[in-house]
Amino acid sequence: MDTRIKICGITRVADAQAAVSAGADALGLVFTQTSPRWVAASIAAEISAEVEGAVIRVGLFVDQDRAQIEQILTRVPVDLLQFHGNETAEFCRSFSLPYMKAFRVAAPFDAAAAVAAYPDACALLLDAYVPGIAGGTGTRLALEYWPQAASLPLVLAGGLTAENVAVAISAVAPNVVDVSGGVEGGIKGIKDHQKMNNFIAAVKTASRSNQ
Fold first, then answer.
1. CA dist 111 to 4, 72, 105, 153, Å?
2. Element holding 77 (H helix, E strand)
3. Beta pairing partners, 149
4. Confidence of residue 120 (pLDDT cuts 50, 70, 90)
5. Domains in the chain, ordered, with CATH?
6. Which residues are designated catalytic?
7. Model confidence at 209, in pLDDT bands (50, 70, 90)?
8. Are 14 and 26 in contact (CB under 8 A)?
9. Backbone phi, then psi, for 92, in 5-degree steps?
10. Among 101, 105, 95, which residue's Cα sits nearest to residue 118?
């Protein structure tokens, strides 16, 4: 099965269009205001409308209260929620949308325990642990921490680029790769369209070679 591709931290309609044209499977919209890739609901709504039906639209939240999340969801249609904080499974499932749960990994990952804690998640995302930062750091996840098996799909995030993603796919065969900073130039949240093209091409080539 081909490795799927999520481009996270989309903040502009033009970048969303370019990601879709390049072959992305999912786009991430970051609704945590402390993130340099935060996108206002008004702009996110435009992005969401532009790519509806073409990709999976993912809304990313980090330890935000219910009222804030619900307010955003009334304005911005998304297909999937991504929770990057300490949210419980009960909280994650309460919005009546599919969700994936992110984990910041600093040791061999216990997939069985994670699945037991979030049994109704549609996927688990593994990102590198950086103290005090929920994600988007550009730090690569140590691949030796990747689990040998899991009963839920696994998403690999953390420091991926067109230059290193093939090695990661060959080593751990993730179901999905998630990139943000690796397809940006000098400004966080502004995607470099050529880097997106290169990254997606590298994933597709590596995915075919890994079958």
1. 20, 31, 11, 10
2. none
3. none
4. very high
5. 4-209 (3.20.20.70)
6. 8, 127
7. confident
8. no
9. -60, -40
10. 101
